[in-house]
Design goal:
Number of strands of chain B: 0
Radius of gyration of chain B: 19 Å
Number of helices of chain A: 5
Oligomer: heterodimer
Order of helices and strands of chain B: HHHHHHHH
Radius of gyration of chain A: 31 Å
Shape of chain B: globular
Helix content of chain B: 55-70%
Strand order of the largest sheet of chain A: 54-55-56-57-35-60-59-58
Helix content of chain A: under 10%
Structural class of chain B: mainly alpha
Strand content of chain A: 35-45%
Structural class of chain A: mainly beta
Distance between the termini of chain A: 66 Å
Largest sheet of chain A: 8 strands, mixed
Strand content of chain B: under 5%
Shape of chain A: elongated
Amino acid sequence: MKRFWLSPAADSLSDYWNALNRNVPAAELSRLEKEVERAHVEAIREVRQGYQPPLPDPAFADRLERILMSAAAHPAAEAIPLPRVPILGTPRRNRIGSFVPQVGRGFAPALRLLLVLLIIIASLAGIWYVAGERGGDDSKVVVPAVTPEMEASPDIAMYRGNAARTGVVPGPGPTGAPVELWTVNLPTSFFWSPAVVDGVLYVEGGASGLFAIDAVTGDTLWTFATSSPVAAAPAVVDGVAYFGSDDGTLYAVDVVTHEALWTFPGIRQESSPAVVDSIVYASTPEGIFYALDAGTGAVVWEADLGSASSGAPAVADGLAFMGSADRKFQAFDAKTGEPVWTFQGDGEGGYATPTIANGVAYLAASGSEMNRFFAVDLSNGELMWHTEQGPDQGLISTTATPERLYSISEDAVLHAFDASNGAGVWEHQLDEFVRAVPILSGSTLYVADNGGFVRAISANTGQEIWSYPIQGGVNFALTVAGDVVYTGTDAGNLYAITGSDSIIAPSAFVTDEKATPAASPAPAAVDSGSGQPIGTVVMDATLSGGAEPLDQPQDATISPDGLIWVTDGGNDQFQIFDVDGAFVEFWGESGEGEGQFRFTRSNGDPMGAIAFAADGSFYVADVGNARVQHFDAERNFLGSWGERGTGNGQFISPAFIVVDSQGNVWIGDDLRDDLQKFDAAGNWLLTTAGSGSGEGQLNYQRDTVLGLDDTIWVADPEHRRIQQWSSDGSFIQAITYADIPGRPVWVQSIVVDESGNLILADIDGARLFVLDPDGEVQGVWSLTYPDGSLIQNSGYLAIVGENAFVMPDWEQSRLILFHLDPPLG
Amino acid sequence: VSWLRNSTPAFAVTSTDPDEGDASLVTQATRGDAQAFALLYRRYLNQVYAFAASRLDSRETAEDVTQTIFLKALGSLHTCRQPELFAGWLFAIARNVVIDAQRTNRVVITTIDDRSELADTARSPESEAIASEWSRELERLRRDCLSAGDRELLDLRMQGLSDKEIAIALQRSHGAVRTAQYRMVKRLRGCLDRIRGGMS
């Protein structure tokens, strides 16, 4: 009996896991990873072979069709009672059942009623607006959380955004698709969240101390060495950075002179300082709570908590708060240290850092069996309400607005609670464990997990808006300042992630001199230097092919006699068109013989390409057969070379091909991650460096094209750059996306015109960027069809004539001829 | 509900070509051609129902959800800005409705075995046996190896959606879906190895 799912895929993964266990070199791991990737589409096919889709009952199908037809015919049909009770009106049952107050039953209808009332009331007041730009659920109403921080600067002065530890930041957060602003690697394993003040990011730098990093560029501005690693989130207030280290020293460092103003010994690790009104609050492991003069470090007051301190201090409403391991939570007069009240909670474990908002202290105490969440009245220290969570469902941290609390539990569920009573509003199951408090900006929550993803989640609905993969897991190192998310991983990578709608530099941090570099005025063709599109592409023809339609066309190349050759991926042939789009003929057939091709490689991707030499002969990158075939101008077979392998002259996925002015042939192999150069007869000449992120290295590269002076340009979207090599195989330069105003998202295709201008097709951003030979942007055009839909998943561009281009749209299986409006000046 | 008894809707437009692409049908349906929407409905009913049923615990709930999905799609068809990616847009609605149903009904994600009553029984005994063995194994992989997000991705994949359509359905970037899918398959394979004794 056939067993499903017994493909080479499992073997390749087995090899991969074994390799991981053997600590084999990164290059070998990368190769194995590629093998896994190559096979994964096949694996999906296998799964589907065995998949038994549940099918609808024919009577139901028939009934529903009638309902739909009637609804289509009667605009008011929605008002007609449908045969079944609508599912959205059923009572809510919460997974953390025991603490849901009595309002829990029938909560959903009640909430909707409340929302309707809110809409009516708010619209009368003229202050409501409907969400929908990002979240996609048009039935939800956003009532923006108005907090004092929203009117302040984008600065993030301390842990959780402020001394009240609300986790709410002014943002506005990234808009559009997430794109990397920069990434740097520091010699540390990031644990604590950075502070961001006046365009400078303050982060722990492991044994090297504190790092001050340019928030816009990622450049290190200065460092401050400490005797042991930084061990809590820094606070930066009034030009002084306050942070603790592993040896218990609390440092106050002037951010202008980079010198220590004072130090204070014996502070507990993990006690991120709070700074309010020139007083620094911190605690010792033994349970002494200190208020220190921010200018001198002198003790203003101290209080004995009676037990080891727990979490970080919080300060709000004239009170300073500190929890302890015996589940006491104490409030002191922030200026005098006079005890005001003590709350004694039950349960297990100490308190996490409290969240102070709405005149309430929200406290989580997590133990192995018993987990509690308390709301304590700030005016008297009395318990207002509490909830209980099951084993392994303890709440880790809380972000608070006047209406809602957002908290993540140990089982990686992001919860939204009603701030007034703790009733559940929505839940979102995350993939991986999360330590960092969710950061709220506007109506979006930002979460970073241990599995290497940053996610933006709608605070109104719990729906994920986007996710962005990063290298390494995140502990507490997450914040949002301006329109940038900053996060650091345990692998030492620090990321700045902004949105595709952001302009050259994040708006919050652009100072005048940064926005307009004096030496290089913005090119005239670019709108204000922002990189925003100045025009769009205009369709001249949309072609579906000859009698046999195009199937996943990938590559378009212009022959010396001016015809357009298109790789017809699914049919293993070429379709040839004239420059006006008229179909001319088919050529080639599927197979492994001479003049036969495989343009679909083993993972199902349509690939393959053609390049013409000056003498009219041409070479075909026969990707599925791992070889190059050479034909004369009359299409007679001249020879072929190549076999599967990683040695010189061998191929795994010869997907890209270029012939230079000397008749040499360059092959780009996106599974070997390299370029190989051959003479016209196929004799191997050189191979470039293989897999990696360094200069001249590649990883799953895309288009490979000829530039001026026989240089080679390669799209390297995994590393968000394009790279250039000289004809002797030496690396020349990389242009990173961050260097390009408007910031491409994924450059799949490149073409170089006669003047050396680079035309880049950004298929995820649906834009064409044109750079001059110096890399300056000449213009950006939207890649859109006439109906406004985006041209994405397109293949490889070619220039047909003056301001005339051809590009296959492989997903739509068609070929488009277009020009730029306005034309490239 | 007497209007339900009409066997043929009076407004049906019969000129619509059943082989027309989604984009064209969406355009026609947006202009009020009910028959065009009917064709879209017939084209996607099985997939939408299978997606709902794979994530919900009863046939009745799956039917309720399917009904809600198509009514919502009909009511908001004018908001489908990329008609050629109608499937992605439809599954974005499907996903939201299913999530709502799970939240409001405290739905337990059903297992494939549990769904055997929902499956097509028109198979040969041998292929039924093979599929049954595979179903059990796949369910174990799905349950033990995959996160909730992965399961959703797999369920969309099972309905034959392309990466691009899945990206729209999940409201994520194309690149993010590519990465997530790769990770998902990697997890499945690693788990398979462990289950079959190769990597314990």
